[in-house]
Amino acid sequence: MDNDRIAENLISILGEDNVRRDEPMNVHTTFRIGGEADFFITPRTEEQILDVVTFLKKTDILYMIVGNGSNLLVNDAGFRGVIVELGDLFSGYEIVNMEGSGAVLVTAKAGMKLTRLGNELASKGIGGFEFATGIPGCIGGAVRMNAGAYGGEFSDIVVSVRVIDKDGLIRELSASELKYAYRTSIVARQDMIVLEARLKLLMGNPEEIRGRIKELARKRRQKQPLEYPSAGSTFKRPEGYFAAKLIEDAGLKGYSIGGAQVSDKHAGFVINKDGATAEDVCRLTEHIKKEVKEKYDVELELEIVKVGFQDSLKKEKMLR
Ligand SMILES: Cc1cc2nc3c(=O)[nH]c(=O)nc-3n(C[C@H](O)[C@H](O)[C@H](O)COP(=O)(O)OP(=O)(O)OC[C@H]3O[C@@H](n4cnc5c(N)ncnc54)[C@H](O)[C@@H]3O)c2cc1C
Question: Is the CB of 24 inside a 6 Å radius of any atom of ligand 1?
């Protein structure tokens, strides 16, 4: 099917305002890197998401779900396919149940920003989400990759998740069915789409909860290069090591290729120091991997998700 026909179909499901063509992806990623996506669409309801996915599965065009783009490296050549953003237009939350025990169930849509959710819950005296409040992503991406920080991770709080599975069916998965592990879940392994997550949190004192959020934000500002665009930790933590320490010990802190640099504040972050291209970032991450392998015999694995590259395209195709 040609792109004009695809556009007609997407517009008939979503309306013109929610279908953009040739959309630059650098404005949709915290790395501020990436060429144009053929289509960038913003569904607002579960029904629209299902209709879009059902349609796209019948074509041979690639598609990818994104949230806030805070873990993505998009190729300079962009993405030949449809980027489906579940962000601000598919967000919101509900406090569904208050049990006598002090536990609270909160249902949040995939596009809900973690920072906004954490701050709003804090003002209502709902805690247990402090660890996630400084992560610049949305619920969907965080549930998928079991995002975590400062001793907490999503697997600690997720009770169940509503997803569209690989056959295009809506399902409810319990925490145990999510098969959580370090920075992964069945949602990632089977490329499901998160629609909504139910979280178990705790009532507490609003002032204390806000205080903890503030303290973690202070730690982040102190340790992380938040003054530059990045996609967070570049590599997963290799078993028994810390990626940042290996990179620093290999003498790579501050090392740069083109506009991409290993942050001299935190070696675990590759930053977009000065107009970096995706190619700069790839060359730099390959160099880091090679040096760390040679010096310490440890294989670093990217935590950042590559979009629109040959290796990621192969995976994206296999998952269709
Ligand atoms: C400054 C900075 C600090 C960070 N700190 C942390 C940290 O402390 N801990 C941490 O874990 N991460 C951290 N990150 C990384 C990132 O914020 C998290 O991985 C976050 O969970 C990604 O969410 P997102 O909405 O931005 O996802 P995106 O980057 O848009 O997407 C990431 C992946 O999730 C998938 N995805 C997105 N939405 C959905 C959905 N609805 N259904 C299915 N799949 C979906 C995408 O297809 C992609 O594979 C940091 C990033 C930055 C820039």
Answer: no
